[in-house]
Amino acid sequence: MNKTILSLLGLTLSVGLSADVKRGQQVFNQFCANCHGDKGQGLVGPNLTDKEILHGSSKEEIVKVIKNGVLEKAMPAWGTILNDSQISDVSDYVKSIIGKNLKNGFVAVKTTVSSFPTGTLEKPYLIRTYMPALDLDKSIFVNHGKGGNVNKYSPGSGKEDPKKVQKPINGLPSTITVNFGQELSYTFDTLECRLLYTWSGQFLDMTKYWGKGTGGGRRGFGYIPDIMGDVHFKTSGAHPFKGKVQFKGYRKEKGIPVFLYQAGGLSISLKITLGPKKGEAICEYRTNSKEPLKIKLPPGIQSSSGQSGSLILNAQQAQNFKLIVKGAK
Ligand code: HEC
Q1: Domain Cytochrome c, which positions (predicted)?
Q2: What is the pLDDT of residue 221?
Q3: Which residues approach ligand 1 with their CB closer than 6 A?
Q4: Could you write out the DSSP letters of every residue in 196-262?
């Protein structure tokens, strides 16, 4: 081959490439720029112009990550949204910007939000967030819908993709969690209307959910906060009150949450405070019962007179009684 042909070949090749890159840039602007920035400099998705390339910088590898996405990190899969030549073009575009080292467009926002919120005895901190189910028995969650897999929704096509499956979030959506400082934290479930568990020590690590104070770390679905202290009590067995339960809301008495619900035809209010020992919780119940009441206490809960198991309250006691939830040993 002589030089002229070679350079001609080179010319057509580079012209062809830049046309691909141009088309790829259009695809990029339409589908990718809102996450990766208009020039690929990064926004909520990573900077594609720097040298930190997690999934490889060959065309093959780029095509693969674009096709399949990184679902647990919120990079969508484009394999069913874009056709092969669009993916090829946009991969060429991505390849062309690697190494440009553009400054990341993401400006860290200063925020007062801490991923380690805390309350005090006088001013407990209340949060409604997904909470871990720990290893509580499934039979406790009779009123929870069974979160099933769903087909993944694609924002690009506005359709669900029958081939892609999204698992349900692995946490309890219906809880109210309260922290009194180092001494006591607890989680109450509003669907089951019962205290699920208690702990003492540090409260929650919200980093997976809130990020590191730079505005949101929630990526993908793995954002259930972590319990940081020592768990003392986990509920088990049937609900203490027989019959259907329904949550009616909560109010605060001098800053302390009081849960209102119905169970087995009774109106019940439950106020949970710290007992004399670390991690010990006192549950104060008020009901509108006119009759004696039989309730079944799960292990770890006693009456104020030290009874456990089945508890029989006379009509007067049934209107206002306290139960003690064991704390630290
Ligand atoms: C909803 C936000 C979002 C959109 C839209 C999006 N991405 Fe991503 N992308 C991400 C995130 C988040 C990651 C990081 C994945 C990881 O950390 O493993 C990523 C990773 C990547 C990577 C791998 C980077 C590396 O370091 O290896 C490439 C390449 C990429 N995206 C290209 C694209 C292209 C091309 C499009 C458009 C067709 C696109 N992305 C659309 C969020 C997005």
Answers
A1: 19-98
A2: 59
A3: 28, 31-32, 34-36, 44-46, 48, 53-55, 62, 65-66, 70, 73-76, 78, 90, 94
A4: EEEEESS-EE-HHHH-SSSS----TT--PPEE-SEEEEE--SS-SS-S-EEEEEEEEETTEEEEEEE
Closest CA to ligand 1's atom 6: 32
Please count the other Cβ atoms lying within 10 Å of the Cβ belonging to residue 58.
11
Q: How far is the CA of 94 from the centre of ligand 1 (A)?
A: 10
Residue nearest to atom 43 of ligand 1 (CA): 75
- Phi and psi at residue 198, in whole multiples of 5°? -130, 155
pLDDT averaged over every residue in the chain: 85
Gap from CA of 63 to ligand 1 centroid (Å): 11
Contact 183/193 with Cβ under 8 angstroms? Answer: no
Ligand 1 centre and the CA of 58: distance in Å? Answer: 15
- Of 3.30.110.40, 1.10.760.10, 1.10.10.10, 1.20.1740.10, the CATH number of 8-97 is 1.10.760.10
Residue ranges of domains in the chain: 8-97, 125-325
Predicted TM-score (pTM) of the model is 0.57
Backbone angles phi, psi at 107, to 5 degrees: -95, 120
Using DSSP's 3-state secondary structure scheme, residue 159 falls into strand
pLDDT digits (tens, 9 = 90+) for 113-127: 677 888 999 999 999
